[in-house]
Write a structure and sequence with these properties.
The protein is built from eleven helices and no strands. By secondary structure, the protein is mostly helical. It is globular and about 45 Å long.
């Protein structure tokens, strides 16, 4: 795969993904996340079941929705605040530092992807050493594509849901990723993401360069890009809810 030519879109997404994954807040520990979120709804025994199997075993759909919406609201607020700050004079508005704002934006996207996947029953997506490997990067790419409305990514994500329903083993998920994430599929998703990344970056930068009102414009642009993407991911997972909840484990 290293010898295959890459498009500018693919390269752009690959660069953003690499930089975003280095942000300290991006890695989500599945056990810690589930324990914290479920403590308000579940007993210790139920939390253990959720961690060992799936939160869908112990939470109602209404509770899943409440936690998921809370995660979306939390990260939307954080990313909008960061974007607004970047639009303030003397803040991150210098051209040389704007890329850091874009990287942080996608850092929150990746963090939210992990939280929603874990909430809907996905296993730990990092490898046994807690590192982001190639399969994990492919998972991020697929669900990033889902958030941008890419049909190819949506179809691939459906196959992952079927794999999750067969068990919560990372090995099972990796097998499904390798089966779904052919070079051609990942190339299409990477190109799609790259094009959308360019559009969103241009829109965000435009808001930041308007004196004084750049901050609210930047925050608003960020909200109307991040929130719909987050809702698209939740909608996809809701559509796969019956499949994800059907695991016989």
């Amino acid at each position: 795969m290293e010898n295959q030519p890459s498009t500018d879109g693919e390269k752009g997404w690959s660069q953003i993904l690499t930089l975003a994954l280095n942000l300290p807040f991006v890695k989500v520990d599945r056990t810690t996340f589930l324990r914290n979120e479920l403590s308000r709804y579940c007993s210790n025994e139920e939390i253990h079941i959720a961690i060992e199997k799936s939160p869908l075993k112990v939470l109602s759909k209404k509770q899943i929705d409440k936690i998921a919406n809370g995660c979306i609201k939390y990260h939307t607020t954080l990313v909008c605040a960061a974007s607004a700050a970047a639009g303030l004079p003397g803040g991150f508005a210098m051209a040389a530092t704007i890329p850091a704002d874009i990287v942080q934006y996608y850092g929150h996207v990746l963090t939210l992807i992990q939280k929603l996947l874990y909430l809907y029953g996905y296993p730990e997506i990092s490898n046994e050493k807690g590192e982001i490997d190639d399969e994990t990067a492919n998972i991020f790419t697929i669900f990033m594509g889902v958030m941008l409305g890419c049909k190819v990514a949506n179809d691939a994500a459906k196959e992952l849901a079927k794999a999750v329903a067969k068990g919560v083993s990372k090995n099972i998920l990796n097998m499904a990723v390798k089966k779904s994430a052919t070079f051609q599929l990942m190339k299409q998703i990477g190109k799609w993401i790259g094009v959308n990344l360019t559009k969103k970056t241009a829109s965000n930068w435009a808001g930041k360069f308007i004196p004084l009102i750049g901050a609210p414009i930047s925050g608003a642009i960020t909200y109307f890009s991040f929130n719909p993407m987050a809702e698209l991911l939740k909608k996809h997972l809701d559509e796969q809810y019956e499949i994800l909840a059907s695991s016989n484990l």
